[in-house]
Amino acid sequence: MVEHVVVVGAGVYGAAVAASLTRRGARVTVVDAGAPAGGTSGATFSWTNSCGKQPRAYHDFSVVSMEAHRRLAAEVPHGDWYHEGGNLEWAADDAGRQELRKKVAGVLDYGYEARWLSRAEVLDLEPDMNPGGLPADEIAYFPREGWIEPTRLIGHLLSGAVSRGAELVRDDAVTDLEVTAGVVRAVRLASGRRLSVDAVVNCAGPQAARIAELAGLALPMRNTLGVLIYTSPVAVSVSRVVHAPHVHLRPDGAGRLLLHTPDVDDAAHVSDTGEISVDQSVVDRVVEAGRALYPGMRSATVESVRVGERPIPGDGLPVLGRVVDLPNFHFAVSHSGATLSVHAGDLVAAEALGEDQSDALAAFRFERL
Ligand SMILES: Cc1cc2nc3c(=O)[nH]c(=O)nc-3n(C[C@H](O)[C@H](O)[C@H](O)COP(=O)(O)OP(=O)(O)OC[C@H]3O[C@@H](n4cnc5c(N)ncnc54)[C@H](O)[C@@H]3O)c2cc1C
Question: How far apart are CA 342 and CA 117, in angstroms?
């Protein structure tokens, strides 16, 4: 019988898994090498979506995950870390418009909500946008998409887990796993502490391959860096996620805006000593694109630039649930974790406690890699 579960990592995945495990009655220890939300979950665009995700199983899983956010936020008083304001997207050239038409047709075919808006309709939604920055029509709108505040979500999930008896260990890395006869017996921490376990859940995000390796498993990952630009508070009305050709942006609470675009990810450099820097000219370019789209942003300054590492399994799809050859070791690792973690974490927790979730998780098993 599974009594004690160690969850490695306290990002969105670790928090969601721990919350679900404790709701199901397990004794849980969550261990993080740093602070909760100090990893990728603290440096993410966190757009909740299933916009163009392939294959169909991944699309459907993302849609159910979006519903899980909606449900959780509705259940919890002050669950206002979840913002379902929709997402606007348009393209700058013919090739981009072709791509976008294809994407919209594809998601409509899957029964996902999407519609085309004109410039005037978009200005009703986003009155502070510069009309000159918008095409006359063919602006895609995905009304059920939104964004989350991951740090507040993690705070809520971990506080629930702790109130149900979980122990939260910070600033103490998992350094070893004791595996004998095809079972993980104990987790060793940098402090020298040894935790006997009935099950382990690997929620170490970009470091998930390292934890898998401690268990003798090879998890191929192709992580990438992403640059995120946080502005000072600014009195401009931005109510939703916007994917414009040269800048992606969304509100970030208290009037701050978060700017991003994958085009600038190459501007992040990691030195031999692990220090991360970002080319200033690239940051300036993204901020200028934001100002061109929302002239009211002119007075905003850049408060911080963060670099997040996307945890991307080798084939791009999530890795979730038990391992056949090591049945008390479980994965909860993916890109798009801001979208997936509440739903996926619940399924992984159920499986760690002995409920087979193969119907839901078949497409995301470790063994396919
Ligand atoms: C630029 C960028 C944009 C993104 N945009 C989106 C988006 O729009 N929508 C979306 O859904 N997703 C998005 N993502 C992806 C999403 O943010 C991640 O999938 C998610 O945050 C991963 O959460 P996690 O809990 O797996 O990892 P993390 O948040 O990194 O948590 C892992 C934790 O494990 C801990 N850890 C690591 N090694 C050890 C160890 N040895 N012992 C103990 N603890 C350890 C770390 O300290 C860390 O706190 C984006 C990511 C980036 C970088």
Answer: 31
Q: How far is the CA of 34 from the centre of ligand 1 (A)?
A: 13
Pocket test for ligand 1, best of 282, 310, 320, 364 (most atoms within 8 A of CB): 310
- pTM as predicted: 0.98
Three-state secondary-structure class, residue 225: strand
Domain that holds residue 318: 4-50+150-220+314-368
**In a domain? residue 195:** yes
Pocket test for ligand 1, best of 20, 41, 312 (most atoms within 8 A of CB): 41
Q: For position 173, which CATH number holds?
A: 3.50.50.60
Domain stops at, among 99, 117, 143 = 143
CA distances from 212 to 41, 138, 177, 187, 203 (A): 20, 45, 9, 12, 10
pLDDT in tens, 318-363: 999 999 999 999 999 999 999 999 999 999 999 999 999 999 999 9
Atom 33, ligand 1: which residue's CA is nearest? 9
